[in-house]
Design a protein that fits this description.
heterotrimer; A alpha/beta; B alpha/beta; C alpha/beta; B: Rossmann fold; 7-stranded mixed beta sheet; two-stranded antiparallel ribbon; 11 helices; globular; C: alpha/beta; Pyruvate-ferredoxin Oxidoreductase, domain 3; 6-stranded mixed beta sheet
């Protein structure tokens, strides 16, 4: 049988997807469990006329990305939790200056240097910011390599469309595993002249625009509070549109469910198996799988069967971060409980199923 | 009739916020004059720092990108990757370059980034109100070294140009001063040389300007210029620290 | 059976990850769904290596497994760890050349393979893992022999193509 799929390690598939999506600039610093991404980029980007720089730190990397994005380049960066923390200063600048960027966080256990096994305790870091000021970054959480490839491929365009960083939140599990994946076609890449013509905010030198009266300044500084307030309100009008357009989720098995799980990424896969275990025991369980973490899919919670569902369980690889958004989305309609492991520990599907059973028993 | 004096095309008509007697204005002007004389204003992209010159992008009449505190060399490195045929420069003070941004400036030099950095060394944090900088002289008073900087508490003032000139990728480094017309003319020549070396793609270039801060030094502008000559230059001697060998120049 | 859950475990250099990757690759060539999940990080440098492979006719919900249909143990610590994680009726393949004990459980099928001896007989001790993989594939049918040989052609290219006959020989137990 002939297949059009290839077998790829998550990190290498992520890197290839970014290249096929048009990214030609990559700035990075080694950190487990994503180091295969800079390795792949250092090997493959020069072959397609792109540039790879191993930065002196994640601070260096994010600021190179900011400069390259401000100059009109299509930029991709990746790191893992503590490295993403270092990049938050830059993220805040990029958002204010409206510089596009595709970013990947292969998250691991924390806090501090933590460990290198899979974690989801970066939920607050990526959905609430971590940098200063009022800003938002759309975050997408794939649960398999194919979905990650598709999101990264689309992400280069989303970053340009929204003139904002776009974050893909993966974890060590999906980054290190291999799965068959279908790679998309290469997107057309803009020439320097096309960048000057089409990216009408980019610094390219004012000769491209006929004179100094058309010079461009990429900045976030606004010393007058009136001007800064006006700018932030403008950004939030944009984020309000993004909230409507970028909200993505999947639901499974909600009708007649006694209990509903909310889980993203790797945890959603474990939860699916837990749902099968519960079904074998006569308990009907459903799943809400947020794909966009910001905007959080509040409307998915309107699809819960409130006649039958007794509890909602947020399944997470953290001490409970997404559960805050679950509670906001439920708005008091049902109690929310947590099924979790943390620190790089991953629950088995029977553990998750047992937690659901215990929650339902407790409510009786 | 030939005009005797004109506005520099490289400067906008915005009124600068710099204090009276501050030498930032001179540094801005000679850099932009050189770009104008080279016909490169429309092919230049500058990176402004955080510090007193945070608003340089309002005065320098070219495409400009602002950088976070200390990160200008990284931002310029990113810009350079997209536009290898343009002139890319950073303009940074001593807090920005010699303190919080040491990693970025050192590694831009290590990579031999084809950018030019203008380093304004006035030995103090101006914008935040006169705190001690890594370049503050021994005995010099600041709001965070009120009895004067001591070697025991703060270490010796950092000689960035000397340090950077040990790096192979830094092909041209010169320290100049803005205290006299002769020194200003010499500084302008150095600026031109740095841009020309960048255009030839030889590597990283940096010009350090010994500058004044009359407000935070608590001196008149004239006294501040004298202080540069009497106190600053002996510790930070003027001159070329490193330049391309003759056979590399052409 | 529509789903196979497998552990491959041993020490670094025994070709454990390669066995898992070949099964995953072969399953993909057969149009099946498959996942390969390696252990990663410093423990890899410390000498133990293991991977989890799931092969199925339907999309693999979870790449992490807590019980297996098949376990392959290339050294004693691996056998100690993974033998208890086999399902009842599961199949254990272990490296008789290194592991001196027999299986502890009587509710599983165990296959003791002298992989070092058989590889040495073929004149190349590097194909010991292919001896083991051949036993696993031929005794479980997780993928077909033809698919594995197809993978050999994809993986052993250039100068390595000369190694295909030897690997086939090791695999077939000839």
């Amino acid at each position: 049988m002939i297949t059009d799929k290839v077998l790829m390690k998550g990190n290498e598939a992520f890197a290839e997807a970014a290249i096929r999506g048009g990214a030609r600039l990559y700035f990075g610093y080694p950190i487990t469990p994503q180091s295969e991404v800079p390795e792949y980029m250092s090997r493959e980007l020069p072959k397609v006329g792109g540039a790879f720089v191993q930065a002196e730190s994640e601070l260096g990397a994010i600021n190179m990305a900011y400069g390259a994005g401000a100059a009109g380049g299509t930029v991709f960066i990746s790191s893992s939790s503590p490295g993403i923390a270092l990049m938050q200063e830059g993220m805040s600048f990029l958002c204010s200056a409206e510089v596009p960027l595709l970013a990947l966080n292969v998250s691991r256990g924390g806090p501090g240097i933590g460990g290198i096994q899979p974690g989801q305790a970066d939920y607050y870091q990526v959905t609430r910011g971590g940098g200063n000021g009022d800003y938002r970054i759309p975050v997408f959480a794939p649960s398999n390599i194919q979905e990650a490839v598709d999101l990264l491929y689309e992400g280069t365009e989303l970053a340009q469309k929204w003139q904002n960083p776009i974050m893909i939140l993966a974890d060590g599990m999906i980054a290190q595993m291999m799965e068959p994946v279908r790679l998309p076609e290469y997107k057309k890449v803009l020439t320097p002249d096309e960048i000057a013509a089409h990216r009408d905010w980019a610094c390219t030198g004012f000769d491209d625009r006929g004179g100094a009266e058309n010079r461009r300044v990429v900045k976030s500084l606004r010393m007058q509070p009136e001007k800064l307030e006006e700018h932030v309100e403008y950004l939030f009008e944009k984020y309000a549109r993004a909230e409507k357009e970028l909200c993505r989720y999947e639901t499974e098995n909600l009708e007649g469910a006694g209990v509903v799980f909310v889980a993203f990424g790797t945890t959603a896969r474990i939860t699916r198996e837990a749902i099968e275990i519960l079904a074998a025991q006569g308990i009907k369980a459903g799943l809400i799988r947020p794909i966009s973490l910001w905007p959080f899919p509040n409307k998915a919670f309107d699809e819960i069967d409130y006649k039958t569902t007794k509890a909602v369980i947020s399944a997470e690889l953290s001490m409970g971060q997404m559960i805050t958004d679950v509670q906001i989305a439920l708005n008091g309609r049902l109690p929310a409980f947590l099924a979790h492991r943390t620190g790089g520990m991953v629950p088995t599907s029977p553990e998750v199923a047992a937690r659901a059973k215990a929650v339902l028993e407790g409510l009786k | 009739m030939k005009p005797v004096f004109e506005y520099t095309k490289g400067m906008t008509r915005a009124s600068a916020h710099y204090c009276p007697g501050c030498t930032h204005g001179i540094a801005h002007r000679i850099i932009m004059e050189v770009l104008d004389e080279m016909g490169m204003l429309g092919k230049a992209i500058g990176v402004a720092p955080i510090g007193c010159s945070v608003m340089a992008h309002q005065y320098m009449n070219v495409d400009m990108c602002e950088a976070a505190h200390g990160r200008a060399p990284a931002v310029a490195s990113g810009i350079r990757r997209v536009h290898p045929d343009k002139i890319v420069f950073t303009y940074q003070g001593d807090g920005d370059l010699a303190s919080i941004g040491t990693a970025e400036i050192v590694h831009a030099a290590v990579r031999g980034e084809k950018i030019t950095t203008f380093f304004i060394n006035n030995g103090i944090y101006g914008m935040t109100g006169g705190q001690m900088a890594p370049t503050t002289l021994i005995g010099q008073k600041s709001t965070t070294s009120q009895d004067g900087r001591s070697k025991e508490a703060n270490g010796m003032p950092l000689k960035m140009s000397e340090m950077l000139s040990t790096i192979d990728g830094a092909v041209y480094i010169e320290r100049v001063a803005l205290d006299s017309p002769a020194h200003v003319r010499a500084a302008k020549k150095a600026v031109r040389k740095a841009f020309e070396i960048q255009q030839k793609g030889l590597g990283f270039t940096l010009i350090e300007f010994l500058s004044t801060c009359p407000t935070n030094w608590g001196m008149t502008p004239v006294k501040a210029l004298e202080w540069v000559r009497e106190k600053v230059m002996p510790y930070y001697p003027l001159g070329v620290m490193r330049e391309p060998k003759e056979d590399e120049k052409e | 059976m529509s789903t196979y859950k497998m552990f491959f475990a041993g020490s670094g250099g025994q070709g454990v990850l390669m066995m898992g990757q070949i099964v995953t690759y072969a399953a993909m060539l057969e149009g099946k769904e498959a996942t390969f999940l390696p252990s990663y990080g410093p423990e890899m440098r410390g000498g133990t290596a293991n991977c989890t492979v799931v092969v199925s006719d339907k999309p693999v919900s979870c790449p992490i497994i807590y019980e297996a249909d098949i376990a392959v143990a290339m050294n004693l610590p691996s056998m100690d760890k993974f033998e208890p994680m086999l399902k009842k009726g599961g199949k254990l393949f272990y490296n008789k050349s290194l592991i001196e004990r027999d299986q502890n459980r009587d509710d599983i099928d165990a296959y003791a393979i002298d992989i070092a001896g058989r590889a040495a007989a073929l004149g190349n001790d590097k194909v010991a893992n292919m001896v083991m993989l051949g036993e696993v594939v031929r005794n479980t049918g997780v993928v077909s022999i033809e698919s594995v040989f197809h993978v050999f052609e994809k993986v052993f290219t250039g100068r390595k193509a000369a190694l295909i006959p030897l690997n086939k020989q090791a695999f077939l137990g000839e």
